[in-house]
Amino acid sequence: MKLLILDAGHCLSLALARESNRRSDVELVIESSLAITPQRLDDVAPDALIVPPLSRPINADPASVTAHAEAVEACLGLCRQRDLPLVWCVSDQLYEQGHEEPIDEHVIPEPRDDDLRRLVQAGDRIRAELPRHLIVRLGPLFALDGSHAWLGEVLDGLVRGEEQRAASDVVFCPTSSDAVAMALIGILQQQGCGADAWGSYHLAGTEPVSAYTFVSMVRTQLQTRLEGRGESVELGGVKALNHHHDQPLRRVLNCRRVLEVFGVHQKPWRLEVGRMLDLWCLARDEADGLHKEPGKA
Fold this sequence. Notes:
The protein is α/β, with parallel strands linked by helices. The protein has a domain at about 1-140 and about 175-205 and about 250-265: NAD(P)-binding Rossmann-like Domain (Rossmann fold), CATH 3.40.50.720. The chain is built from nine helices and 13 strands. It has a six-stranded parallel beta sheet, sandwiched between helices. A three-stranded mixed beta sheet has the order 11-8-13. The chain has a two-stranded parallel sheet with strand order 6-9. Helix 7 crosses helix 9 (about 270-290). The N and C termini lie far apart (about 45 Å).
């Protein structure tokens, strides 16, 4: 199976590259930007085209949101001409107003923000014009590297002693980019084998949590690891922000359908954060020249 993903520097693109390198049944081609020419698409001849999400669209400038929507619609046009499956990953922030209960796949976002509505319009076009599509709605992505790599940004800021500000009244499911990459490949493999289960799916981690609690837990685990390694680092603190004074905004995705259709289980974010922190510490050792050979004191 050959996959083409856009935006080479995106944390999801990097995660897909790592996952495909571990496998012999996937060939991944990565384009540097969100733009793809018809000639390039014909030359690569992929089995599916993947567009990573615009992370945190609520905080993005309007020009970036419009550019992303236009790029997605351009991809839609090319895929429609070639009957090529399109996979568009979308931030859960499109559910701007949240919901008291977990949000099912059939619920189309209805944001009040004009920019977010522009992204919903792109999704409406995909559903109407391209039968073979996957719209994959994700919780806030976290990774160690790449653009939109939330965890990497938090770790770098903490080590520099910078205060991390995070909402204590917005509840969501943090989502590992590595877990998403593994799930996407598995889903597309099944589609290639005749599953024919196109449409919208929710793919997020387990255990809803506030941004403040997530960042605080990351800080605690980082502190524990550094102390265990004999390092004394004055980490930055974590400050709670409150935007919704009446009641917390819950933006929790119900991921039952991706389990029922494809057998994809959601990975607990705590385990993924722990694994990534171990990798971060290993990279820190190697960068500092402190990595010891097995068996040596």
